[in-house]
Amino acid sequence: MVQGFEHVGMTSSDLDRTIAFYSGLLGLREILVKRTGEGGRIAFLETGGVMLEIVEPAATIETPAREVPVTEAGIRHITFRVEDVEAVYETLRAAGVEFTVPPRRAANAELIRKVAFCRDPDGIVVEFLERV
Fold it and tell me: pTM above the 0.85 mark?
């Protein structure tokens, strides 16, 4: 059976820019960056015992990520638990990151105190939350 959550995989149009966002701004630890056999690159970043696998294909990516509508199956966003959503919001805004949803009370107040949403450099939705 499942022993734990290992990693989330995503595709990036610019691996260096994506690493700068997740590692440089958010503080994920860079574990491995290397070339793939297909001529692209791959990186593994870690936080809290879980990794983010980022693949930059050799071919140019033509379109940004799109948000999966609630009426369509798929993964909708990646979420990071933080100690203080307001502090993360202020830090990222100062770095030029635009938020689609500024800090607000969570709808699932039984589990989550506060949330905020932005997009990574490729348009992938990123949520930050404070637990109750």
Answer: yes
CB count within 10 Å of CB 52 equals 22
Homologous superfamily of domain range 1-62? 2,3-Dihydroxybiphenyl 1,2-Dioxygenase, domain 1 (3.10.180.10)
Following DSSP, what letter does each residue of 73-129 receive, concatenated?
-S---EEEE-S-HHHHHHHHHHTTPPEEEEEEE-S-TTTEEEEEEEE-TT--EEEEE
> pLDDT tens for residues 100-122?
999 999 999 999 999 999 999 99
What is the rounded distance in angstroms from the CA atom of residue 46 to the CA atom of residue 85?
A: 20
Token representation of residue 9: 């995989």
Helix (H, G, I), strand (E, B) or coil at 66: coil
